[in-house]
Amino acid sequence: MSEAALPDAAVAPADTGLLSIARVGARGVITRVSAFDGALPAEELERRLLELGFVEGARIEVLEEGLFGRDPIAVKLDDMRVAIRRREAAAILMSYDSRADA
Amino acid sequence: MTDSSLAPTHLALVGNPNTGKTALFNALTGSRQKVANYAGVTVERKEGVLTSPSGRVIHVVDLPGTYSLRARSPDEAVTRDAVLGRLAGETPPDVIVCVADATNLRLVLRLALELKQVGRPFVLALNMFDIAQRQGLRIDLEGLSREIGAPIVTTVATRKRGIEDLVVQAEALAGSMPAGENVWHEPSAEEIRHAHSEAQRIMRACVRAPERPDTLTSRIDHVLLQPVAGLVILSAIMFVIFQAVFSWATPVADLIDAGFVLLGDLVGRVVTHDLLRSLLVDGLIAGVGSVLVFLPQIIIVFFFILLLEDSGYMARAAFLLDRLMGVAGLHGRAFIPLLSSHACAIPGIMSARVIDQKHDRLTTILIAPLMTCSARLPVYTLIISALIPNRTVWGFINLQGLVMFGLYGAGLVSGLVVAFIIRRVFWRTASEPFLMELPTYKAPEVRNVLLNLWQRVVIFLNRAGRIILPLMILVWALSTFPYPPEGATGPAIDYSFAGMIGHFIQPLLAPIGFNWQMSIALIPGMAAREVAVATLGTIYAVGDVDGAGGAVLTQIVASQWSLATGLSFLAWYVFAPQCVATLGVVKRETNGWTWPTVMFVYMFALAYLAALATYRGALALGWG
Ligand SMILES: Nc1nc2c(ncn2[C@@H]2O[C@H](COP(=O)(O)OP(=O)(O)OP(=O)(O)O)[C@@H](O)[C@H]2O)c(=O)[nH]1
Ligand SMILES: [Mg+2]
Known about the structure:
The structure holds 2 protein chains of 2 kinds. By secondary structure, chain A is of the alpha+beta class. Chain A has one domain: SH3 type barrels, CATH 2.30.30. Helix content of chain A is about 15%, strand content about 35%. In chain A, a hairpin with a 2-residue loop joins strand 4 (about 75) and strand 5 (about 80-85). By secondary structure, chain B is α/β, with parallel strands linked by helices. In chain B, about 60% of the residues lie in helices and about 5% in strands. Chain B is built from 26 helices and 11 strands. In chain B, the strands form 3 sheets. A 6-stranded mixed beta sheet of chain B has the order 2-3-1-4-5-7, sandwiched between helices. Chain B has a two-stranded antiparallel ribbon with strand order 6-8. A two-stranded antiparallel ribbon of chain B has the order 9-10. The longest helix of chain B is centred in the last third of the chain and has 35 residues, at about 445-480. The interface of A and B includes residues 47, 70, 71 and 79 of A. Bound molecules: guanosine-5'-triphosphate and magnesium ion. Magnesium ion binds near residues 22, 41 and 42 of chain B.
């Protein structure tokens, strides 16, 4: 889906991956936040994600996922819990310390 | 000691959503603004006043929560404008109180760095300090205060702890620090990142991770947010609520009902003047009484909604339903305004302010009045208890409760269908992203819940006294005068104004099975839906010549209406735009008459069509 919008997603190191395809239990650190044009202009989405705490270096863990299309997901982001759709989660690259079932 | 020469000071409460700003505002000023455990409770500025121990008058404004001064939705714009002093005709705050959830400091520290640029002195209130202590969170208050360059107080807003200290600190700042230069500008992504790393550095220096972090929320979520089980639990909760509305309330409602019959009887005996007796018994007791009977039900609805709001479950329900709502073209956050609308559409419509994309927000506003608000309960209950048999189906479900649940479902489903049509046909723009904080679960505050319920009772009684009572006197007069001419053969009420008007409009409503009494009840019913029930109460009481007065409306309806007529009336009320106050709020929230007009027309058309289809269908089934 929106992964194509991120040109260098394919060259990311093997132990990193987009939050949009992470499974429940995946845990790690955010390594890059770079949005793409969608319902919001890329630049605006990026700032919103940053303001909500999705920022490079933040610890992240996928806690739960929805029933339909495993969407949205609930993540633990440092000390808070946030719900986000997988579409927007494609703006977030994380490096795993444990990948759950991957 | 009171010194009236002290200049008044203005404080503004600013902070991330759900950090306890309103709880703090209430503790400071003794107000009773709404506090609940989800982001986006406060959507407008509220002002209050207190007098400090030194005698200074302090004005406090409570503001909607925000992650940034870069406002994105209408509620956040309020906060930005208040902080920057951009609101016309309003004093900018002398001191900003930045309210933080002590257990989640990183985001608020970044906001504090933004606030610093505004140049006004500020004090950081570390709220929810009770939770921080319980978790064994260690915060170096002095170090933190030095790093951010502002005094810090720790508070527990819900227990009114730390309030005096906060006032003292704020007052000291107001006296000593002049406002600096405002150098705030919308931060770019890079500036936000930079502020984050600064906040992170401060965190590392001053805050040690909690010794006993909260694991309860994760464990509860692991059950409540299970993909399938979560939805099942959510449906079960809704089902229990709407069953309870019917089954729990009935004994109390019957008691109140019996009380009014007794009262009518008594007054009927004591008052000998015919006209006065008719006014009291038929106009007031039968009319107003028929609405007051529904107080227990309304309390039950509010009770459950308060529990959901205070526990932290609301955001979870929004999470579970996000995709389903998305199919209807609604934003996941729309769930919260829509659930609030089950109490009353007015706060529901206002809380749509947290949705920033205009079309998302308007769609939510347009369908909010389709949710079954508590004012519909009197109408629904009247018809259900009169015409639906009270028996148990499938072993454990009360049939009357089931019909009530069905009516709630009908409102919800038709709202989703309307939203679907709006978003697929008229506004095909993409929805804004769904990004929502899931708050930590809290046990609902008993005091908060009771206080809120009490407020609802007062509002309800107030309405009964201020709207329903005068209207009922009017309806009584219209249905009593003029007297029938000499030698008239029909019932007296047929010759009254109400009779004439009712008979005049009834042909329009005959296709949907309404009799003349129902037709006329729709008119005062515009003021509020439950007034229709009161009107029926009065009209039937006046018309009921042999009855000693005080005959119970339910019995009259049961004996005089066909099932088809009753169902048609229910269908009408699922859609009818019968609430002037709601239309007024829509006008205010959308700045014009366009949307209230659209709402009125579409709901009216749907009401008529639904009633028509129901009536004809019921006749076909032989329920005439
Ligand atoms: N334990 C504890 N709970 C608190 C405290 N202050 C507030 N709360 C709870 O936190 C929740 C949020 O409080 P509110 O006052 O509504 O928060 P707010 O900052 O006004 O939220 P918004 O208006 O949505 O921005 C409620 O459930 C309160 O009961 C506190 O000091 N201790
Ligand atoms: Mg608030």
